[in-house]
Design goal:
This is Anillin homology domain-containing protein. The chain has 505 residues and is α+β, with helices and mostly antiparallel strands. The strands form 4 sheets. Strands 2, 3, 4, 7, 8 and 10 form a 6-stranded antiparallel β-sheet that branches. Helix 1 runs antiparallel to helix 2. The longest helix is centred in the N-terminal third of the chain and has 71 residues.
């Protein structure tokens, strides 16, 4: 019996050796895969650092060119555009440098939000101004004139709008024609909109400009006193910063909850400026159209052959749906899909107990009781589809209402250089109805400011404040008095019904 015990011992030792070798091989393989992932992450981080360094070099060149243009500018428009470009380059450089330093501190930077990104656009940007009645309608009082533009920040992207100049008391609001586009935007984004303004000094009194005083000194006082005063003014003027200086007068923070397919009103945070004369008369709110669209809406996330109820199909995962055709040819021809399976935050992917090549799609949360089994050609294909479906359902939860209702995102980055359309954008004041919406036939005929005064959007209301136009304004207002009378007649039944309800209560 002894030889048998020896054979059993040797076989157990050989089995242990095999297990040890397998475990050692698996550990080595795991270490190798970890090193490969780390090396690829380092390479990706270095490539991103290289891209940032290239962007910083570009902004340095832009900054140098803007500074030279600002020093050589002789006209107001040139100096304002150069100062705006210089400020934008400085802001971009600060963002790039801060991002580069944070990436170098953390060598392997993990993505803060896993899942798909999206495309964001901000357009129809309008900012109402708050002038006094005497300033706007009578064209007197506040004589200040401004140059205004906006910066939009999101991550490392900084976009600027066109410069509006001059803005004075005849303008009821600021209307920017630009469409700003942001790519690769996560669902947890935070867009910061900043408003910069500059007071045009040449419109103020002569006492506010040292250079004008310097030019007129020789004609008003003696040469001895004039030289001393001119020297002090020269020192004061030379110590000041060269070129126009823009002040950050207000800002706003926008997130995914502020996105919509239509234009909406948002709040502004107004900054306090030391010199109150330089503050832009903002109302505290602004309007814009902020739209976002996840990339998985128009991008094919996964395609391939599937088997449902024993029949072969061609499937495509896109836009939070699985569309199924009889063949790949039908899908390429653009034919309507045979079946459509919704994939959203309520969808559950369950592995099949019978086969590793199959899983179940549970849409019971979507009032679909049937669990749909889908079979694939291989185990790897089933795992790939299962992983992408789970990610797709997670994206639906992250993007919230933007995943349920598709928002239109413009593909035009800016319209400031577009000369195709000569149509001028009207102001908020001209487009605001005089009477709130009432559920009656009067709603379709309610007058606007343009209807009453027979004005085009490009015509300022301040031009109607002169005495020569008073009679014409009265005649126009009297001509539409019939509309008001008809509206009052149509309002009587509504008022009567409202009074009856009040009496009952």
């Amino acid at each position: 019996m002894a030889p048998r015990r020896k054979s059993v011992q040797t076989s157990s030792r050989s089995l242990n050796d095999v297990c040890y070798k397998e475990n050692n091989y698996l550990c080595c393989l795991n270490d190798y895969q970890t090193r490969v992932r780390r090396r690829e992450s380092l390479r990706y981080a270095r490539n991103k650092e290289h891209d940032l360094e290239q962007k910083i070099e570009v902004e340095i060149k832009m900054r140098e060119g803007s500074a030279r243009l600002l020093a050589a500018a002789k006209h107001r428009a040139q100096s304002l555009e150069a100062a705006k470009a210089l400020l934008t380059s400085n802001e971009r450089m600060s963002v790039y440098i801060a991002e580069l330093q944070s990436r170098r501190r953390e060598t392997v930077k993990q993505s803060c939000a896993s899942g798909s990104t999206g495309k964001l656009s901000i357009s129809d940007l309008r900012i109402p101004l708050m002038w006094r009645d005497s300033d706007h309608f009578k064209n007197r009082g506040d004589h200040r004139r401004f140059a205004v533009f906006c910066l939009a920040r999101l991550g490392t992207e900084v976009h600027d709008t066109s410069l509006l100049c001059p803005i004075d008391r005849t303008h009821t609001d600021l209307s920017f024609p630009d469409v700003l586009i942001f790519n690769n935007v996560p669902a947890e984004f935070e867009l910061i909109l900043e408003i910069y303004s500059h007071v045009l000094q040449e419109d103020l009194s002569i006492a506010s400009t040292p250079r004008r005083i310097k030019k007129t000194i020789h004609s008003s006082i003696s040469k001895t006193v004039g030289k001393k005063l001119a020297a002090s003014l020269r020192d004061e003027f030379g110590s000041a910063k060269s070129g126009p200086q823009f002040d950050l007068v207000a800002y706003a923070k926008l997130t995914l909850g502020d996105t919509n397919d239509n234009t909406h009103t948002h709040d502004l945070v107004i900054n306090s400026i030391q010199n109150k004369c330089h503050s832009l008369p903002l109302f505290g709110h602004f309007c814009c159209r902020l739209a976002v669209q996840p990339e998985c809406i128009n991008k094919e996330m996964c395609i391939g052959n599937v088997k449902i109820d024993g029949q072969d199909y061609w499937a495509r995962l896109q836009g939070f749906h699985i569309k199924i055709w009889e063949s790949k040819k039908h899908a390429e021809e653009g034919q309507n899909s045979e079946h459509t399976i919704p994939i959203n935050k309520k969808t559950i992917i369950q592995p099949s107990k019978s086969s590793s090549k199959e899983f179940l799609i549970n849409n019971s949360g979507n009032n679909i009781e049937k669990m749909l089994p889908i079979k694939f050609e291989s185990k790897e294909e089933a795992q790939k589809w299962s992983r992408l479906l789970l990610m797709h359902a997670n994206d639906h939860s992250r993007w919230k209402h933007a995943a349920e209702v598709i928002q239109r995102v413009s593909s035009i980055e800016s319209t400031r250089n577009s000369f195709i359309s000569n149509k001028r954008q009207g102001s908020l004041y001209d487009e605001t109805p005089l009477i709130e919406s009432i559920p009656s036939d009067y709603t379709s005929a309610r007058p606007h400011v343009q209807t009453i005064f027979d004005l085009t959007p490009s015509t300022s209301l301040s031009s109607c404040s002169s005495t020569n136009s008073l009679t014409s304004l009265r005649s126009r207002s009297l001509s539409i008095s019939g509309i008001f009378k008809q509206g009052a007649i149509s309002l009587k039944p509504h008022l009567a019904s409202a009074n009856k309800k009040a009496d009952i209560l």
